[in-house]
Amino acid sequence: MTLQGFFRNRISINRNELSGAFGDIGTDLPLIIGMILASGLDTASVLITYGIMQLLTAFIYGIPMPVQPLKAVAMIVIAQKIGPNIIYGGGMAIGILMLILTLTGMIDLIAKYIPKVVVRGIQFGLGIQLSMIALKDYVLSDSYPGYFIAGIAFVVTILLLGNRKYPPAIFIILAGIAYALVVHYDVLTGTKLIQITGPKFYTPTLADMLTGFLVLALPQIPLSIGNSIIATRQIAEDHFPEKKITIRKISLTYSMINLINPFLGGIPTCHGSGGMAGHYAFGARTGGSVAIYGTMFLILGVFFSGSFATVVKIFPLPVLGVILLFEGIWLMVYIKDIIDSKKSFFIAILVGLIACGLPYGYLIGMIVGTALYYLSDKQVKSFLKVP
Predict the structure, then answer these.
(1) Under 8 Å CB-to-CB from 76, ≥6 apart: which residues?
(2) Helix %, strand %, coil % for the chain, to 5?
(3) Among the listed residues 52, 25, 69, 72, the one whose alpha carbon sits nearest the alpha carbon of residue 281
(4) For each of the chain's 387 residues, which pLDDT tens digit applies?
(5) Residues near 164 by Cβ (< 8 Å), separated by ≥ 6?
(6) Cβ(308)–Cβ(49) below 8 Å
(7) pTM: predicted TM-score of the whole model, two decimal places
(8) Which CA distances in Å does 337 have to 215, 300, 308, 333?
(9) Which residues are paired to 270 by β-bridges?
(10) How many CB atoms within 10 Å of residue 201?
(11) Of 36, 44, 236, 375, which sits 20 to 30 A from 160 (CA to CA)?
């Protein structure tokens, strides 16, 4: 196969990939903005590095394998206003820990004994979380005009979801841009936008890594193993079985991007089942959607980082909320392939509720769900009081 043929099979650029490119923006953009504002991170470094990581994974996998902000890390950073050096150290610590799990084979061992039903439960719980955030924090964020544009976006998505000729995200993003230009016209046109900038380099210290490990890595790792590694591999197998993507490969690229990010001033990132579901739901079938998405962040970082808070108003929260809502729903729908078994269905529902409802819910849900799976049907029915 020629080099041109190699890239053609992995990266397609068309309207469906363009639509799919926006399938994860509802999750990513608010977390990235929140971390930049809370911690005073260098905007150009964050955006450029984030774009580079998207492009790398697009070419490595050739499917819509996204790069996302680490959710537990992002929430802690935003809530506690963690400083940049600790963020970089935490990212490095996460990268080292995941590399150890990968090279020793421990990640394969963990994945081997976590059954598919538990993975479906994790996806279900994450889908609930994303859907609730979409409705409460995004769709309802902009009063009646926001409700109106969200309603239009919802109807368009319902009508066009799965349509390969007219993929929905292109139309709802255009509607969102039109809405933003009307609502935020003065802000968008009254700001000096273009300013060419590059990333700033940083070298994490041992103290940064130790503190980052305790503050950021420990809360993140259970979610990463369950969702970023195991659940992502399951969705890859669901939609792209011919690619034969392994747990070890996903874990390795996860670790490598976090070993690179800190030196370029980037935030800790991961792969994610929700991101892949979002890209796929809105039309993506190759790495083209992720490449387009990464290029967008590169352009924002190089040319618009000085006015990033203004430029992102072009993506109004109500529209992002609709995209995020469908990402969450798509994740929950994966549970359909285990509903024939009463035991599996109840375990998946229980894992999902634990995951989205308890502190460290993904770790607790994995442990409880895996334990129940290996118990006999009689013991499980007694535990769940199933008639």
Answers:
(1) 82, 215, 216, 219
(2) 80, 0, 20
(3) 25
(4) 555 555 667 899 999 999 999 999 988 988 898 899 889 999 999 999 999 999 999 999 999 999 999 988 998 898 788 999 999 999 999 999 999 999 999 999 999 899 999 999 988 998 898 898 888 888 887 788 889 999 999 999 999 988 889 999 999 999 988 888 887 666 556 555 677 888 899 999 999 999 999 999 988 888 889 889 999 999 999 999 999 999 999 999 999 999 999 999 999 999 988 899 999 999 999 999 999 999 999 999 998 888 787 777 788 889 989 998 998 899 899 999 888 888 899 999 999 999 888 877 888 898 999 999 988 666 666 665 655
(5) 16, 283
(6) no
(7) 0.86
(8) 37, 40, 42, 9
(9) 68
(10) 10
(11) 236
Size of the chain in residues: 387
* The pair of three-digit structure tokens given for residue 127, joined into one six-digit string: 């889908």
* Residue that is written with structure tokens 């924002």 in the block: 300
CB 336 within 8 A of CB 35: no
